[in-house]
Structure formats: structure tokens, C-alpha cells
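Entry details:
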Amino acid sequence: MTVAPAAAQQCKACIRLPKAKAFVDWLLHHWQSEGLQVRQPQPDGLELALANVGVVSLQVASTKRLDCVLQPVNARMGELMQLSLTEHLAEFADDMGWPDDSWAITWEGEPARSAVQLHIARVIRNQPLTPRMRRIRLALDGTAAFAPGGLHVRLLLPQAGVAPAWPTVLDDGRLQWMAGKNRLTRRTYTISAINIEESWIEIDALLHQAPTGTPGDSPGASWAASAAPGSEVGVLSPAGGLVHHAAHRVLVADACALPAAARMVAAQPAGHTAHVLLWVADAQERPAFAAAPNTSVTWLYGGRPGATQLEIAQV
């Protein structure tokens, strides 16, 4: 992959967190699971190069410190890379159950940070696609920031009937929650569609099922089931992920990943082909995946996709 970073845009940072090596291992697995080719030029280090974006390098300096170098292709990509790194750190800290002040990034000089990182979106429509999949349209100012190649978006999910206490964003990108208020659950969703002119995005959300066949105890499923027009949800920018292209691809997805597979095949260039294996509960879920040119689909049915062994296979 050819990347031509702009030397003048290079920026460095010191990241302090309780377990530096654990974050490097987590990020390596995370990036590889997204199909990215990550180099490890040195022990306990990572380097990721993305065409038209830039290069990010991380190196463990001590048990509680990482050194970071970003080499973006331009200033705008520099903003996106900084915010994406911050979001990954926040997600890792959440996974580890660490408090908000457990980590920090110190940039050399003044970081080229986006003016808006937390958007408050309003639900326009909550449409059932299948018995287990909802398509939710969100009115969102600054929609253009989510458009350039973005595949995913992170949401802060309020509880039904409870007025949300939105956090503020600190200079280093951490979220600061109001004292005495519960932190909102953070979940990542695929952007199914985006309309810059009308300022909305759409996401598809799975209603996870418990063993009894009823909606499971999942914050994401609970929000998707109850999100009413006019209600609010937090959206963290920028959108993450890229739609990767190849002349022929084989994609494997359970019900949770079905929206991402649908977005990828919808975006594939003319002449490219794909074969997709989709594991869903039953045939009623098939409308959640729209047909795409030059794409063949094998459907697998049975069990609770992603949570149990496959009980029945059907092509």
C-alpha cells in the first residue's frame, strides 16, 4: 500500500495508561479483525499505513507509557487520525473497566483537533426491517464529517424514559461525565446510509435474543427497540473504519455483522465480485440484506447467531 504522508503534518504524542502493552495487543487484534495489514517493525510496537489517510506508529516506552507518531497525508486526515486514536483508547479503557482519568494523551505542540466531537442526534424514524433488525434514521448536524469512507459510528445510548446527562469532551479527547450521573453505554454500529444534503444517517441495529427467544438484556437492543422519533442519542465523531476493496472477496458474518457485510458489498466497484455467508436465526431475517450486483449469498439458519453453535444449515 502506497502512502505519501505530509512531513509538515507529522505530530507526536505521549500516551499514559495503566497497561501499555495490553493496549498494543488489543489494538493489533482489533485492527486485524477489520482486515487491516498491521506491521510490527519493533517488539511491542505497531505501524498501520492507510492509503489516502497516513501512517500511525505506536511503541511501548514503559509499562505505563506509549510513544505515538502520526504522519497524515493532510491536516484533515490528521484530525481524523487523532480522534480515532482517542476513541480506541476510550473503548479499551471501557473494556478494562478503568475510570475516566486513567489515561491521557499529551501532544507535542497544539494538536489539530476537530471543533466538534460529540453530536446530539435526533431519531427521525425507527423502521422494522425484520423481526430482529431495526433501521434507525438519525438527524445529525455536520453529517459531512461522517461521509469520507466511514464505515462505523459510535453511539452513546440513553435509557428509555431517562433524560440523558451528556458528557463534555476534554482537550485530550476523553469524555468527562457529570458527577453523580451514570455514564451512557457506548456501542458501535455500521452506517447503512448517509444523506449529506438532508443531514441524516441510518444504522441497522439487531435486537439480540435471549435463550427464551425474547429480546435479550442488551443496552443496544433495548435502545433500538425503544428509540422513538424525537428522542436523542449521542454520536461520537468521526466515523471509523474503511470499506476495503478487492477484485473478489469472501465475507462471513453473523446477524450482528450483517449490516457491515451489506454496506461492503453495496460499495464494491463495478466489476468486482463477492460471496457472502450469512448466519441468521431464520429465513425471516433475509430482508435485512439487500441484493447487490455480482454478489452471491449463502444463508445459514439456526441457533442464536454469534452466541450458540449452529444447529441447522440451509443454503
Summary: The chain has four helices and 17 strands. The chain has a mean pLDDT of 84. The longest strand covers residues 118-130.
